[in-house]
C-alpha cells in the first residue's frame, strides 16, 4: 500500500478500514518515512448460532440465540405438568458438546461452530402418597361419524371428585395420551367431564377408544399414587362392551 506524504501534520494518524476486519490505525512520520501501528487490524471474533429444537411435553430456552467461542450459555428446561426431563443434548456438527447441570438448568461452553439444543421429556413417576379410588365402572360410547370413547366412572363422592380434578397424566399401554377439553375428532386423548348421556350426569374420566384390548391404563394424579386400570373388550362396533378392572386391587364394575 502506497500513502503519499502530502499530509500537513507530522506525525499523522492514518486509519485503514477493510471489510470484515477491525480498523487499522497507523502513526506516520514523513521525516524518517516510518509507520507505527497504534491499533492492530484483527479479524472480529466470529459469532455462531444457537438453535433450540421445539420439544413435546415441555419448553426449552437458551440464554442467547448467538454466541462467540468460549462464552457460557445457560439452557433452561420447563416440563409440562406430569412430565420430567429425560435427556438434554447439545450438538455441533453431530458432535456432542459437554453440558453441566446447575441450579437454574444446564450450561455449556460455546464451541467454534453453530450448535443445536434438543430435549426429550418423559412421563414423570408419581410420588404421591394419597390413595386413588378403588372401584371403577366402564362405559363405551360408540360413534359412527365422530370419536368413540370410553367413560371410566370411579364414583361420585367428594374424595373421588378431588382426585379427578388432580389427574395430570393418562397413558394407555405406555403411550401418553394428550389432555384436551373435548374428544370430538381427537385420537389418543383424554379429558375429565360430565357423562351427558346418563340421567345422573356423573363426572367421569373420558378417553378415546383407539387402543387394542386388552389394554392397561395408568392414571397419575398430583399427590396420589398411580392408579392402574385394565381394560378388555368384547364385541365390535355398536355392540362393543368394555370391561374395566382396577389393576392394583379394589372392586370392579362393568357395563357396555
Explain the overall architecture.
With about 260 residues, this protein is mainly β. Helix content is about 5%, strand content about 50%. It is built from one helix and 22 strands. The chain has one helix spanning about 160-165; strands at about 10-15, 25-30, 35-40, 45-50, 60, 65-70, 70-80, 85-90, 95, 100, 105-110, 115-125, 135-140, 150-155, 165-170, 175-180, 190-195, 205-210, 215-220, 225-235, 240-245, 255. The strands form four sheets. The chain has a ten-stranded mixed sheet with strand order 21-20-19-15-16-17-18-14-13-22. Strands 6-4-12-8-9 form a five-stranded mixed sheet, with no helix packed on it. Strands 5-7-11-10 form a four-stranded antiparallel sheet, with no helix packed on it. A hairpin with a 4-residue loop joins strand 2 and strand 3.
**Large-scale geometry:** rod-shaped
Residue share in helix: under 10%
State the helix count: 1
Nearest-integer average pLDDT: 86
- N-end to C-end Cα span: 92 Å
Class based on secondary structure composition and strand pairing = mainly beta
Query: How are the strands of the biggest sheet laid out side by side?
Result: 21-20-19-15-16-17-18-14-13-22
Q: Estimate the strand proportion.
A: over 45%
Runs in which pLDDT lies below 50 for 5 or more consecutive residues are 249-256
Topology order in helix (H) and strand (E) letters: EEEEEEEEEEEEEEHEEEEEEEE
DSSP strand count: 22
Query: What integer value in Å does the Rg equal?
Result: 32 Å
Sheet with the most strands, sense and barrel status: 10 strands, mixed
Amino acid at each position: 500500500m502506497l500513502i503519499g506524504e502530502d499530509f500537513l501534520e507530522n506525525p499523522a494518524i492514518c486509519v485503514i478500514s477493510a471489510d470484515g476486519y477491525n480498523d487499522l490505525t497507523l502513526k506516520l512520520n514523513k521525516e524518517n518515512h516510518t509507520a507505527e501501528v497504534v491499533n492492530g487490524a484483527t479479524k472480529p471474533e466470529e459469532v455462531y448460532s444457537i438453535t433450540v429444537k421445539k420439544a413435546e411435553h415441555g419448553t426449552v430456552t437458551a440464554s442467547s440465540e448467538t454466541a462467540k467461542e468460549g462464552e457460557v450459555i445457560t439452557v433452561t428446561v420447563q416440563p409440562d405438568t406430569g412430565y420430567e426431563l429425560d435427556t438434554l443434548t447439545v450438538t455441533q456438527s453431530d458432535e456432542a458438546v459437554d453440558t453441566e447441570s446447575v441450579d437454574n438448568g444446564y450450561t455449556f461452553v460455546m464451541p467454534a461452530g453453530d450448535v443445536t439444543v434438543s430435549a426429550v421429556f418423559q412421563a414423570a413417576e408419581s410420588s404421591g402418597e394419597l390413595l386413588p379410588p378403588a372401584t371403577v365402572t366402564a362405559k363405551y360410547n360408540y360413534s359412527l361419524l365422530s370419536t368413540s370413547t370410553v367413560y371410566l366412572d370411579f364414583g361420585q363422592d367428594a374424595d373421588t371428585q378431588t382426585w379427578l380434578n388432580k389427574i395430570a397424566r393418562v397413558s394407555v399401554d405406555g403411550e401418553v395420551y394428550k389432555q384436551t377439553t373435548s374428544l370430538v375428532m381427537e385420537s389418543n386423548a383424554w379429558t375429565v367431564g360430565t357423562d351427558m348421556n346418563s340421567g345422573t350426569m356423573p363426572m367421569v374420566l373420558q378417553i378415546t377408544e383407539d387402543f387394542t384390548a386388552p389394554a392397561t391404563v395408568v392414571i397419575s394424579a398430583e399427590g396420589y399414587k398411580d392408579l392402574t386400570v385394565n381394560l378388555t373388550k368384547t364385541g365390535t362396533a355398536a355392540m362393543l362392551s368394555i370391561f374395566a378392572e382396577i389393576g392394583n386391587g379394589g372392586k370392579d364394575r362393568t357395563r357396555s
